[in-house]
Amino acid sequence: MFDANSRYAKQPTYTVLVDGRAVTAVDVPLPGMAALAGYHPRAVGERLDLIAARYLKDATLFWRLCDLNNAPVPAALAARDLVGIPRGGAT
């Protein structure tokens, strides 16, 4: 259902009824406690996917930056001057 590098890949699914239809759902996982490798000084307008591609070698892992920085959505990091980078690169 999800790509292997998705935060939802290993989450269990369950079925709920929505307007009389059975829909598969997944719980939102709690952020992991990754070790901090350092900080990236974010330039104005610099996209989170590009930062993830640079440090994590995969642009789709931008959510790991959000988790480490306690940002519920990528836009929440837009106002930050420094973005914490998780140690270990891609997982």
Furnish the topology, listing elements before pairings.
Layout: E1 13-18, E2 21-26, E3 36-41, H1 48-56, H2 62-68, E4 82-86
Antiparallel strand pairs: 1-2, 3-4
Question: Can you characterise this structure?
Answer:
- There is one protein chain.
- With 91 residues, the chain is α+β, with helices and mostly antiparallel strands.
- The chain has two domains: 30 residues, no CATH class; 56 residues, no CATH class.
- 18% of the residues lie in helices and 25% in strands.
- The chain is built from two helices and four strands.
- The strands form two sheets. A two-stranded antiparallel sheet has the order 1-2. A two-stranded antiparallel ribbon has the order 3-4.
- A hairpin with a 2-residue loop joins strand 1 and strand 2.
- The protein is elongated.
- 18% of the residues are buried.
- The mean pLDDT is 86.
Sum this structure up briefly.
This protein is of the alpha+beta class. It folds into two domains: 1-30, no CATH class; 31-86, no CATH class. 18% of the residues lie in helices and 25% in strands.
Gyration radius, in Å: 15 Å
Topology as H/E string? EEEHHE
Poorly predicted ranges: none
The coarse silhouette is elongated
Secondary structure: number of strands: 4
Overall pLDDT, averaged?
A: 86
Termini, distance in Å? 18 Å
Oligomer: single chain
Taken together, the total number of domains comes to: 2
Cross-sheet strand order for the largest sheet: 1-2
How much helical structure, as a percent, in the residues? 10-25%
Strand content: 25-35%
Main sheet specs:
2 strands, antiparallel
| Tally of helical runs | 2
Structural class: alpha+beta
